């Protein structure tokens, strides 16, 4: 009876260890820290992860395999880079560094190997004819100047009407007296 109890407990313990081993095998994560506290974001498989203000980022639950991440910076401070690496059974930790030529690189924190990124071509800039604000009309009325603008708001076009009022004649006389003593 005593032996049966010990065997039963050992089999339960072995089962938990096997489950923990297989659960941990796919529980890889990615850790990136910026050397100069530069905030950044990465895109992995259409999912965007942002670092904190000090440049630290943790992406949990990465499966084993090859990854290509796009690394970019807020407000387009630097161009985007594509980095490629593999995850196999261990978490990955990188230090994000900028070299003297202004190129961003990832340094593997374990092997100390440097991974150079490929510059991602930026999207085509807006052409000069594709204005965000365009003046449509201007007319003078009794109360002032009325201007109408067409504004591009994302994909929608909206009209904005601005009325610049004429100063009242009494106010105009007082201003003239103050300026001409």
How are the SSEs placed, and which strands pair?
Blueprint: H1 2-25, E1 28-34, E2 41-44, E3 47-50, E4 56-62, E5 65-72, E6 81-87, E7 92-98, E8 104-108, E9 114-116, E10 118-119, E11 133-140, E12 144-153, E13 156-165, H2 169-179
Parallel strand pairs: 1-7
Antiparallel strand pairs: 1-4, 2-3, 2-5, 5-6, 6-10, 7-8, 8-9, 11-12, 12-13
What is the H-and-E element order?
Answer: HEEEEEEEEEEEEEH
Structural class: alpha+beta
In which order are the strands of the major sheet placed? Answer: 4-1-7-8-9
SS field, number of helical segments? 2
Give the low-pLDDT segments. 12-22, 124-129
Notes on the protein architecture:
The protein is α+β, with helices and mostly antiparallel strands and about 180 residues long. Helices cover about 20% and strands about 45% of the residues. It has two helices and 13 strands, in the order αβββββββββββββα. The protein has helices at about 1-25, 170-180; strands at about 30-35, 40-45, 45-50, 55-60, 65-70, 80-85, 90-100, 105-110, 115, 120, 135-140, 145-155, 155-165. A five-stranded mixed sheet has the order 4-1-7-8-9, with no helix packed on it. The radius of gyration is 31 Å and the shape is elongated.
Describe what is shown at a glance:
This protein has helices spanning 2-25, 169-179, and strands at 28-34, 41-44, 47-50, 56-62, 65-72, 81-87, 92-98, 104-108, 114-116, 118-119, 133-140, 144-153, 156-165. With 181 residues, it is α+β, with helices and mostly antiparallel strands.
């Amino acid at each position: 009876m005593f032996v049966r109890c010990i065997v039963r407990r050992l089999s339960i313990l072995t089962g938990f260890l096997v489950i923990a081993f297989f659960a941990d095998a796919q529980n890889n994560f990615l850790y990136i820290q910026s050397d100069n506290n530069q905030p950044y974001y990465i895109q992995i498989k259409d999912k965007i992860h942002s670092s904190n203000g000090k440049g630290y980022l943790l992406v949990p639950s990465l499966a084993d395999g090859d990854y290509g991440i796009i690394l970019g910076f807020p407000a387009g401070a630097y161009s985007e880079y594509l980095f490629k690496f593999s995850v196999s059974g261990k978490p990955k930790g990188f230090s994000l560094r900028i070299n003297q030529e202004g190129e961003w690189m990832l340094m593997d924190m374990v092997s100390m190997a440097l991974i150079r990124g490929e510059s991602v071509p930026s999207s085509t800039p807006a052409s000069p004819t594709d204005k965000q604000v365009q003046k449509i009309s201007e007319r003078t009325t009794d109360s002032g100047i009325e201007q109408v603008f067409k504004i591009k708001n994302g994909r929608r076009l909206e009209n904005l009407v601005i009325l610049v009022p004429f100063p009242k004649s009494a106010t105009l006389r007082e201003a003239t007296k103050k300026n001409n003593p």
